[in-house]
Amino acid sequence: MPKNRKGFRLEADSLGERRVPIGAYWGVQTLRASENFAISGMRAKPVFITATAMVKKAAARTNLSLGLLDRKRAGAIIRAADEIINGGLHDQFIVDVYQAGAGTSHNMNANEVIANRAIEELGGRRGDYSIVHPNDHVNASQSTNDAMPAALRVAAIMSSEGLVRALNGLSRTLRQKAARFDGVIKSGRTHLQDAAPVRLGQEFSGYAASVESSVDRIKTATGRMRIIGLGGTAVGTGINTHPLYRKAVMPALRDATGIRGLRPAPDYFEAATSLGDFTASSGALRGAAADLIRICNDLRLLASGPHTGLAEITIPAVQPGSSIMPGKVNPSMPEMLTMVSFQVIGNDLAITLAAQAGQLELNVMFPLVNWNLLHSIEILTNAVSAFDERCARGIEADRQRCKTYFENSAGLATALNRVIGYEAAARVVKEAEANGETIREAVLRAGIMTKDEWERITDPKTITGPAGLKGLKRKRPGRAR
Predict the structure, then answer these.
(1) 171 is a catalytic site residue
(2) Amino acid 472: pLDDT
(3) Residue 239 and residue 32: Cα distance in Å, rounded?
(4) CATH number of the structural domain spanning residue 470
């Protein structure tokens, strides 16, 4: 038992002795890491701390079943891990996210916290590692190199559930708006210029479909996270494990996490070296972010104004928009979601660079991948939920504004193509613009169509679908005067 000094206990590792605060559950290796890596002030995500404890719990149960741990020690380790899983002791995880390669610092932080809590449970004093040792007992049958990727896979699966719920909630809102706005006719725009008419509901159905596609891609990528390399230990060979460990640890991990479908890696060497599944997951987040940026840009344009912009929709006012211009209201929630999406795309680039930076039997850049992936999931989840609740649900259409743009849009001439041909329709557009007329006025004045024919082909459902010209004969256009 290390000798106590006032307020501290002595602990030793391969580099020598250090004084550790007597009340700390972490130990000497965590102390060194906290001193070495005073970088960002950011700590491991709570979900990763929880997932790490789940991996430790599964390993302890497996080691007990294989006779590698006695019942007393295994039970104490499992109870300590459960305490962390239930939210306890998270303040004892003090290592910066930018740390030693592979995540050794976080792994040892977990090993020391669990060991000292288990020691305490068994009636010992923190730091007396003859009772429960961080390496020999808590880390038994593991290496940082298989335990930490397994923990990230578990954490990513658990975190992604919340993101999928948030995105599904947003897609439901957009589908509801699509139904509500289905009869709102407006001018379409391509290249930011007038184009063929659309219904506002059709635009919103497109937004909903984009979000739903993002959900599918995220689910597909998350499915790969269920492939677990526990039992590969340091380099994929499984050194220091029981021959049955790989098979036995998987049901223990499924039980500890409650996640179905966890399965052993088909190749433990690939599991030790490749971060491909994490880049795929990040790529799915990047794709979702790109679509969300596009949707937010559209909403900001459609809501621009209210008097000098498009102003086809209104979005809820959530706060004053200016410190100098009284009464100004900004699209704050779409702005926020766009900025978050930019960050997700930046995180994805960092993950990609880290994933290709491994050498030989290990990619030591894992801690960067871990932080950025979980950070992307967290901020995107929160941003999508806030955007849905505080913006999307309150969007309203300015039906009259949409109708006015529709009636004055040169894009209406598209409906003339099959009646008088493209070139003749283009002449009608030019003459209407020269005379300051609408397309409707020019068509009727030239006798190209009767009023009834014009009304029929410009009916909102007719002009925004593939049918509607049946019964109209091709005509030679007159000239608008």
Answers:
(1) no
(2) 58
(3) 27
(4) 1.10.40.30
